Amino acid sequence: GSWAKKYGRCELASILARNGIPRNQIPDWICTATAESSLNSKAINKNKNGSTDYGIFQINNGYWCSPGRHNDCKVSCSALRSDNIGPSIQCAKKIYRRHGFNAWYGWKNKCKGKNLSSYVKGCRY
Fold it and tell me: One GO BP annotation here (predicted)?
């Protein structure tokens, strides 16, 4: 169905850990996803330049998914909006390897340089 899947912080922490995100980065990833999509896997937003951001990490079709000019993640944009966030995580890891968290405005505006421990408070992962 098209019901949005909204992830809990701790649920997302576990999924990120299982997908190979280093433990020390998990608070940053959860903060980023919170800032970008409010942890909603179905989020979609149009940008002023005509490009579109998809999914829990708001991945842009200008570079990363198809249809788009480059499709560097070799993934369809619609797969980045599915309840299975595995493809979003794999693509986000690639973006991170290339640009770090600075690729995400949400991280720069809401997470950078802040104490993010509250994002994983009480979570086991």
Answer: killing of cells of another organism
Within a domain: residue 40? yes
Tell me: pLDDT of 1 over 50: no
Reported as type and span, the H/E element at residue 52 is strand 52-54
Counted domains in the chain:
1
Does the annotation count 11 as an active-site position? no
72 is catalytic: no
Options 11, 28, 53, 83, the catalytic residue: 53
Q: What is the pLDDT of residues 46-86, one digit of tens each?
A: 999 999 999 999 999 999 999 978 999 999 999 999 989 99
Angle at 83 between CA 89 and CA 9, to 5 degrees: 65
